[in-house]
Amino acid sequence: MKKLLVSIFIIILSLTIFANEKVGAYTTLEEPLAKELFDEFEKETGIKVEWVRLSTGEAVARMEAEANNPQASIWVGGVGLGHIEAKQKGLTTPYKSPMARNTPDKYRDTESYWIGLYVGPLAFGINTDRAKELGIKAPEGWFDIIDSKYTKMVRVANPGTSGTAYNVVTNIISLFGGNEDLTFTYLKKLDNSIDQYTKSGSAGGKSAAIGEIPIAIGYLHDLVKLKAGGAPLEIVIPKEGTGFELASMSLIKNGPDSLNAKKLYNWVLGEKAQAMIAAWYVIPVSKIAPKDKVVVEIDTLNTVNQDYEWDASNKERLVERWNKEIGSK
């Protein structure tokens, strides 16, 4: 009888421990996509993901504020520059995942602090109904979108909160060969076309999709998804050259659920999760991700040269200048 009671106690204890398994996560994926991914992980492993959706800038700021007492253990998604910035600030920790071998070297940190999940080029989304109503054509490139005919017709995010918008800034710096003064002269011209700076990089596309604004600047996959959902959008990749994000993943330094965070990290890099990610209209970088849903291969696009380390190291300075010269106006 005593042995039976001990056995029952052990079973109850193990079930309780299993039921309480969790991992705290920050994510910059769109909420429906994050829910889809994390729900599947919980279904397969029994580990509950307690997640909070934040923009790239918000995620870095939150981790920095919580550095002495981290509230999450993993950051999934978010522009790669943010992950580099987090590494440089000592907010993340290296992890050599056995699944990392499926990701080409150029899409992961040499010291294993972060790993890329997918690539997303910048693009313009134009609501064709609004364009017809206003008698305008879609802008073809960066030097077209600053034309006065698009005054207050464009929506984009704030580079202080959005990795997407900061990617726009570094894109223009690349187009001007690194000349920051010319870049800010351009950004001031672009400001005349902007009706509103949003917090999230995907918000502008959603506004364009419903006709609230004629034109949005965002990432290709976000715009393609809206179009696939029935939005009357024409999508243009800037002809002069486009920048692109490398959505990535990192483990948070001293996170409270580090073991389960590693399990989630490995699972996201596995076949089931990679197949889910590939269905999001993004360009997956893993060798095991299916490519049948890829809209365009990154190698076929006219992309600008991006120095991720430089872009991350200079972000605070450039955002401060943007706030002073443009954001405060």
Describe this structure in words.
- There is one protein chain.
- With 329 residues, this protein is of the alpha/beta class.
- It is 43% helix and 18% strand.
- The protein has 13 helices and eleven strands.
- It has helices at 2-19, 31-45, 56-65, 80-88, 128-134, 163-175, 180-193, 203-209, 220-228, 258-268, 271-278, 308-313, 315-327, and strands at 22-27, 48-53, 74-76, 92-93, 114-127, 154-157, 194-198, 215-219, 233-236, 244-252, 283-284.
- Strands 1, 2, 3, 4, 5, 6, 7, 8, 9, 10 and 11 form an eleven-stranded mixed sheet that branches.
- Helix 2 links the parallel strand 1 (22-27) and strand 2.
- Helix 3 (56-65) runs parallel beside helix 4 (80-88) and helix 6 (163-175) packs across helix 7.
- The longest helix is centred in the N-terminal third of the chain and has 18 residues, at 2-19.
- The protein is globular and about 55 Å long.
- The termini are far apart.
- 47% of the residues are buried.
- Residues 4-19 have low confidence and may be disordered.
Name its key features:
11 strands, globular, alpha/beta, 13 helices, 43% helix
Brief overview, please?
By secondary structure, the chain is of the alpha/beta class. Helix content is 43%, strand content 18%. Strands 1, 2, 3, 4, 5, 6, 7, 8, 9, 10 and 11 form an eleven-stranded mixed sheet that branches.
List the helices and strands and how they pair.
Layout: H1 2-19, E1 22-27, H2 31-45, E2 48-53, H3 56-65, E3 74-76, H4 80-88, E4 92-93, E5 114-127, H5 128-134, E6 154-157, H6 163-175, H7 180-193, E7 194-198, H8 203-209, E8 215-219, H9 220-228, E9 233-236, E10 244-252, H10 258-268, H11 271-278, E11 283-284, H12 308-313, H13 315-327
Parallel strand pairs: 1-2, 1-3, 6-7, 6-8
Antiparallel strand pairs: 3-10, 4-10, 5-8, 5-9, 5-10, 5-11
Keywords: Signal
InterPro entries: Ferric-bd (IPR026045)
GO molecular function, one term: thiamine binding
